[in-house]
Amino acid sequence: MERRQLLKTSLAFLGTTTLISFVYPASKFLIPPKRRAKDTLLTINKDEIPPGTAKEIIYNETPVVVINRRGSGFIALSRICTHLGCLVGYDKFNSKLVCPCHAGEFDLEGNVLTGPATKPLLRYPLKITSDEITIG
Amino acid sequence: MWGKLIHWIEVRIGLEELVNKHLRNYRTPKGATFWSTLGFITLIAFIVQAITGIMLLLYYIPHPDHAFKSVQTITNEIPYGWLFRLIHNVGGNIIVGVIIIHLAHVFLRVSYKKPREITWVSGVLMFFLVLLACITGQLLPWHQTGFWQTTVTSTIPGFLPVIGEGISSYMRGGEFVTGITLSRFFSFHVVILPVFIVALIFLHVMLIRRQGLSTSPSIEPDADTAPIDEFRREAHLEGQPCFPHFSLKRLFMVMVYFSVLFFVLTFFPNLFLPPEANMQADPLMTPESIRPAWYFLAPYQLIKTIPNDILGISLIVIFSVILLIWPFLDAKDAGRNIRRRPMLLSLALIVLALWTILTIWGMYS
Predict the structure, then answer these.
(1) Element housing B198 (H / E)
(2) Chain B CB contacts of A30 below 8 Å
């Protein structure tokens, strides 16, 4: 190999190594940190949610709605619309959940009724005692 | 493949013409040494600060309740967060050191004389703004060191009669260092100061490109003694093209800069982070020993030594103003070779010696 070619190759190698040494940590740095899973349970009083009403709460940093369905009991659903992430609201007159962004509608089981969403709302497990509801 | 890519770029940008015009045809003076690359190194150091600063901004939260925690998260949890934080921290100190050496070199070469007065003034202004960036930056992690350094720094202007209290209050956004101070310092550190610094960099570089690099007075001792009454660009036909000759010197010094940076990062990572920098700011507890950063030790010790506060701060203000307007105070046609000007040489050496003594004294007092 000629001297000039050797120098060029060495320079290219060193340059690439230096670049990677900066780009790799920088790209790793930009990856958002993983949220730590919380095992905390959230307990609310049954009296706070009379039949036919709902209560909006924050569970593990996620907006959740707990609904007391007439005849079907309690259910906890994520309020995050599975279409584009807006928050659904409880429509007590029509007994459904409505997304204000693109008029998506979900039944009180979280299933899609109409609108652009294709997946049901995320459902959270509940433990119900005589006085309290525990989410998680 | 590589050749095709270069050709593709060449057709669209005209890289060859750009390199010829701005690097090969731009000539550096005979005897341009590694010292002459310090301005370029300052620019590289500033770019490093800007890049790492922007990266830190992705996770930093400028609020008293979250600032300390967010910096701890960056350091301990975000991948390579410690690296970018330390580069920003150590780089901020190195940039001040490089500027001080650059200023001293320009002064000792008497390169500030006509027609380069504005170049000097813009350089000194940049130095002051970088110091302000350091002052504002030290509060942002909301740790004990930064909090109390800011408390002390923002109290010092209060010694000045009439306007002093106003300056202190303006700096803090109130009577004490609070969340308002943090918001102010954050705005200054990430937006206002960088904008002014970048503007001054453009002015500084533009002037250097227009006038040409100054020749060393020891190479051409009588070159600049003739009166200059019209714009004259120094073509340096006797010198070398900037590319590749001087560019290689610059490249070497860039490597030296990164070597120093990573040497400190590797062997002395806590050099500029005292133990109190790992404790959240507590407005009700002053640490036992609180000292400013090394580049403020000299004025700190001066104020401590002189019993009259007004006199101490006045001396610092007067020194800063003299430094800024020095080319206009040394405007006589006395030549540029400092070896033939014993008074100027003595003055420079006395100031440098005093600054060094006060810094060491401040470190151990």
Answers:
(1) helix B193-211
(2) 55, 58
What one-character DSSP code corresponds to residue B162?
T
List, in sequence order, every residue forming a beta bridge with A98; answer none if it has no partner.
A89, A105
Q: Which residue of B has its CA nearest to A14?
A: B255
pLDDT at A117: 93
Contact A33 B77 (CB under 8 A): yes
| pLDDT < 70 stretches in chain B | 219-228
Residue B173: the pLDDT is 93
Q: Where are the alpha helices (DSSP H) in B109-192?
A: 117-139, 144-155, 164-172, 179-187
Stated length of chain B: 365
Find, in chain B, the residue whose alpha carbon is nearest to that of A25: B80
Do B178 and B97 touch, CB atoms closer than 8 A? Answer: no
Which ipTM did the prediction report? 0.71
Does A29 contact chain B (CB < 8 Å)? Answer: yes
pTM comes to 0.84
State the pairing for strand pair A112-114/A54-59.
unpaired
User: Sign of dihedral through CA atoms A66, A69, A75, A79?
Assistant: negative
B79, closest residue in chain A (CA to CA): A29
Residue in this structure with the two tokens 């060859």, named with its chain if needed: B16
pLDDT at B220: 62
Say whether B120 sits in a helix, a strand or coil. helix
Position B221 scores a pLDDT of 52
Structure-token pair, residue B250: 């610059």
Could you tell me the sign of the dihedral formed by the alpha carbons of B185, B188, B194, B199, in that order? negative
Residue stretches of chain A with pLDDT short of 50: none
